[in-house]
Structure to design on (555 residues):
């Protein structure tokens, strides 16, 4: 399974490979982050797109169920960390990024994700 | 006067009107505030209301005057009616009298805000208030007229004292009703939290089903720890008690040396992959089939384990367990009540424990790490007994055995209490 292709399909709302679940998308994010750091423009764009939440995460009956927050928010938090740790992404599209993070901060059901998003927002506004 | 067609009729009683002292209760199904409309509407609606204990409420009553002979001015009052012996109630004095002015018209609506002339009980509880409402006036012939204009019955929750910061909070109605009942007559933050924790099974909500926020849990019947710790926090908030939310996740220990005595060594030799427990959780008879891991778990009896021995030589146990991956992301969520001295906390694990754990430690700071020997209070009084196994992967008998929960690979189970050093990371 080409993980980047699955991520691409997820963001384009196309069907994913059979059996692909949120843990595969997590791996895909990790791979996209690696490539984004190397300057891959498509992967940089996908990480930013991911924060817009215009996607729904696939769950299969064998999917691992996370404990502290929903799978979607696990993925969002990881993508948020990747984006904020990448100076190219963090500084390139600040307005769009701020809007995405604000949306996450306001709508996350998990206190951990909401608080993480708020901290990033504060960091953005102060720095 | 036709008794079936009284000249004045009570058609609504509104407690949580804008500006009132009533606490905003929310219906989890519609996610709407119950007090957006009158809580009692004749033949249509009767919803609970909540006040801080000892409050003196105001209500807004809606009256319909029907006939021309209703005077411009009349007196309104309500008598409290006795309830059956099985229904807890309070029997205060008569409510009112209040003077009401109405227009002489064929049909006229009167909406009037009325202050109670006595306070609600100064203790936590759920009370039933049954009222018979009367209107009285002097007829044109000079006779005293008194008519019953309606009977109403209200469920009134009185809560613990509230911190000023909670004035804008919203409370799910079932949480308010449950906690006001469980904590009836209870005072003190710890006692309130204890009563809530002890009674959580009465909600019929279960641990171990996907669900991470309170409303979803109330709708679907349960949730994961990420939902339970929010539920417990909101329940305590209903009674004016502030508890903190924390999630913890173990972090990788320092690599173990080939001689098993600690110190630097290749990480791949022995590494934690997950922590686990076998207790079923609230309202489960056994670990929930939805999220449990069922399989043969090889178990080490000693620490450090004999890494010369291959995994298949260890005794195994067929078990159902909850396993939490040590992946830097997931973990377990709990609540803390901080004692006034700031040096002691009470740990509340809504998923697994029915009693608080008193720990001689301050509230862990978010994003901090805690290195813990076997004597650390969090370990000795909670972690070691609750999550009795840590799952380890490593080079065993010359073969690498990994922990991969997605692939149902469980590595080697090591008893938590035997591990000399564990590190925990804290999150919100």
């Amino acid at each position: 399974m080409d993980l980047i292709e699955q991520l691409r399909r997820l963001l384009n709302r196309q069907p994913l490979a059979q059996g692909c679940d949120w843990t595969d998308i997590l791996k895909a994010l990790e791979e996209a982050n690696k490539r984004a750091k190397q300057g891959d423009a498509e992967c940089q764009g996908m990480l930013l797109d991911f924060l817009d939440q215009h996607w729904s995460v696939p769950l299969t009956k064998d999917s691992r169920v996370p404990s502290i927050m929903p799978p979607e928010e696990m993925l969002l938090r990881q993508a948020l960390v990747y984006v904020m740790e990448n100076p190219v992404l963090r500084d390139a599209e600040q307005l769009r990024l701020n809007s995405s993070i604000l949306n996450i901060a306001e709508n996350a059901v998990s206190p951990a994700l909401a608080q993480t998003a708020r901290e990033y927002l504060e960091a953005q506004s102060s720095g | 006067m036709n008794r079936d067609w009284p000249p004045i009729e009570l058609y609504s009683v509104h407690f949580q009107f804008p500006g009132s002292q009533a606490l905003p209760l929310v219906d989890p199904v519609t996610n709407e505030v119950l007090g957006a409309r009158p809580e009692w509407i004749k033949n249509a609606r009767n919803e609970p209301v909540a006040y801080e204990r000892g409050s003196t409420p105001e209500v807004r009553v809606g009256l319909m005057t029907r006939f021309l002979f209703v005077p411009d001015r009349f007196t309104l009052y309500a008598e409290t009616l006795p309830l059956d012996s099985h229904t807890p109630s309070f029997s205060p004095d008569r409510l009112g009298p209040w003077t009401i002015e109405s227009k002489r018209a064929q049909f006229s609506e009167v909406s009037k805000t009325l202050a109670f002339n006595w306070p609600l009980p100064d203790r936590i509880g759920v009370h039933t208030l049954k009222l018979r409402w009367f209107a009285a006036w002097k007829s044109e012939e000079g006779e005293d007229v008194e008519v019953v204009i309606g009977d109403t019955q209200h469920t009134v929750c009185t809560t613990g004292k509230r911190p000023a910061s909670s004035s804008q909070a919203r409370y799910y109605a079932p949480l308010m009703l449950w906690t006001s009942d469980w904590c009836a007559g209870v005072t003190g933050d710890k006692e309130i939290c204890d009563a809530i924790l002890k009674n959580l099974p009465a909600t019929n909500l279960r641990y171990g089903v996907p669900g991470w926020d309170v409303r979803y849990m109330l709708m679907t019947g349960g949730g994961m720890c990420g939902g339970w710790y929010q539920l417990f926090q909101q329940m305590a908030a209903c009674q004016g008690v502030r508890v903190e939310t924390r999630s913890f996740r173990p972090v990788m220990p320092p690599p173990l040396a080939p001689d098993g005595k600690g110190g630097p060594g290749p990480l791949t030799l022995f590494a934690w992959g997950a922590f686990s427990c076998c207790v079923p959780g609230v309202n489960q008879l056994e670990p929930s089939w939805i999220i449990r891991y069922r399989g043969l778990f090889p178990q080490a009896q000693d620490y450090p384990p004999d890494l010369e021995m291959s995994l298949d030589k260890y005794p195994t146990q067929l078990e159902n367990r909850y396993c939490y991956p040590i992946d830097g992301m997931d973990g377990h969520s709990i609540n803390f009540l901080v004692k006034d001295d700031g040096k002691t906390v009470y740990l509340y694990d809504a998923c697994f424990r029915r009693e608080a754990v008193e720990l001689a430690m301050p509230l862990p700071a978010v994003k901090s790490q805690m290195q813990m020997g076997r004597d650390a209070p969090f370990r000795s009084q909670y972690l070691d007994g609750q999550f009795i196994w840590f799952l380890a992967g490593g080079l065993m008998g010359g073969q690498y055995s990994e922990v991969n929960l997605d692939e149902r690979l469980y590595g080697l189970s090591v008893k938590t209490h035997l591990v000399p050093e564990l590190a925990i990371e804290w999150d919100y």
Q: What stands out?
A: The longest helix of chain A spans residues 22-37. Chain A has a mean pLDDT of 90. The two ends of chain A are 40 Å apart (CA to CA).
